[in-house]
Amino acid sequence: MRGSACREVIGGVHLSSDLVVRSHWCAVLGVAEADAGDRFFETGGDSLLAIDLIQRIEADLGVEVPVEVLFTDGSLAALIEASTAAAST
After folding, report:
1. pTM of the prediction?
2. Where is 9: in which H helix or E strand?
């Protein structure tokens, strides 16, 4: 599945990294929608939720995503970018 860059199979359905990250972001933060500019800690996240979010993304995409992205930039866009970059290596 690695060769299909940024795509993963979950429940038999192919999803992009963007959709996987966005879906877990909403689930962990308890929000219905998320914009690229949303910031994790300003949206109600904390350090424990950050670890949970990263673990969920890593489990579904099969890659390592640096948790630092949530503590330095914190935006959904930065997390999607980091996850996509990890999935394409």
Report:
1. 0.82
2. strand 7-10
